[in-house]
Amino acid sequence: MILSIESSCDDSSIALTQISTKELIFHQKISQDDDHAPYGGVVPEIASRLHAISLPRILSSCKKFLPQVKAVAVTSAPGLSITLLEGVAMAQALCLALNVPLINVHHLKGHIYSLFIEQNSFFPLDVLLVSGGHTLILEAQSFKHINIIAQSLDDSFGESFDKVAKMLNLGYPGGPIVEQYALNGDPYRFSFSIPLYQYPQIAFSFSGLKNSVRLAIESLNKQSTISEQDKADICASFQRIAIAHIKQQCERFLAKSTQVHFAIVGGASANLILRQELKTLAQKFHKTFQTAPLEFCSDNAAMIGRVAIESYQQNHFITPDSISVLPRTSSIF
Predict the structure, then answer these.
(1) Per-residue pLDDT tens over the stretch 310-321
(2) Is the distance from CB of 211 to CB of 205 less than 8 angstroms?
(3) Cβ contacts of residue 13 below 8 Å, gap of 6+?
(4) Cα separation of 73 and 304, whole Å?
(5) Does the pTM of the predicted model rise above 0.90?
(6) How far apart are CA 175 and CA 41, in angstroms?
């Protein structure tokens, strides 16, 4: 089996995946949400220290499987340098101790392969990847050939939810909190504009929408204290426009695409309203709609292990001393 490690941001995770059957033998993740909540976002130094504690703790839970490990896989890009290094250091030590090869995995490819955990992969397919750090439309032709078609010009979809939650003092992580507040809000109370409505290229932008939310909050503060209903209405109005923007850009893309499959992946793909809107959109263009299980939408080692099976079968290994971490990359694959 392959032992995989994920530490690109604030989730410490280790998984063990059977090579021949793709069965997920072991998977555990320790979240740091409560530790970062007081700051309204991830503090890299805190995240790194917590990885140094959590990863060995998870590893101790699966020590009995180590004699069966044939390779170690680890996320090496993109992410926070200081947290990526924690996972890489563990992977290097394990490879030397077990005398097995090392596989470096791109985190965003991992999100695509979250669709294929415990099952065979299928290509080609179009993919919308939405997370706290990225908003991308991808053409995935095969394991080796994945092209970026469109991306955000500024904030990501998930990041914009976190920032709206922070402006309203709702807590962290913002995505599920804003989604929950929106359930009790009026999505038409605030007339925010859809970003890039007449922009000639397919792209995403959330900075202008985020600023509109800020101005609405400032206006309410001048009148009186913001009520819980005000917060719910702002969340509902913001979410409606953010999703309408995603849907509009995807519709422009899918109208020209010839692929049969359309998928949504990434941590922010857990938003149920977004899933439903894009499912309807896929049906409009007669495409199958693919999603990852909710438990594997956010960062996890199971998706890293699933990518690693493909790398293992194609003999894509690197030496432990040659691996390096890349916080950002212009070409993700």
Answers:
(1) 999 999 999 999
(2) no
(3) 5, 6, 7, 27, 28, 29, 30, 58, 299, 300, 301, 302, 304
(4) 7
(5) yes
(6) 12
Q: Which among 274, 293, 258, 315 has a CA at the least distance from the CA of 116?
A: 293
CB count, 10 Å around CB of 104? Answer: 22
Hunting for tokens 């994945």 — which residue is that? 146
pLDDT at 328: 74
Using alpha carbons, select from 78, 47, 65, 81 the residue that is nearest to residue 4.
65
What pLDDT is attached to residue 329? 60
Mean pLDDT of all residues in 137-149? 96
Q: Angle at CA 74, nearest 5°, toward 31 and 68?
A: 100
In the structure encoding, which two tokens stand for residue 258, read together?
């010839």
Residue the block writes with tokens 């909050």: 217
Q: How far is CA 233 from the centre of its chain?
A: 26
The residue behind tokens 């913002």 is 174
Which pLDDT value is given to residue 327? 85
For 33-98, give the DSSP string: HHHHGGGTS--HHHHHHHHHHHHHHHHHHTGGGGGG--EEEEEEESS-HHHHHHHHHHHHHHHHHH
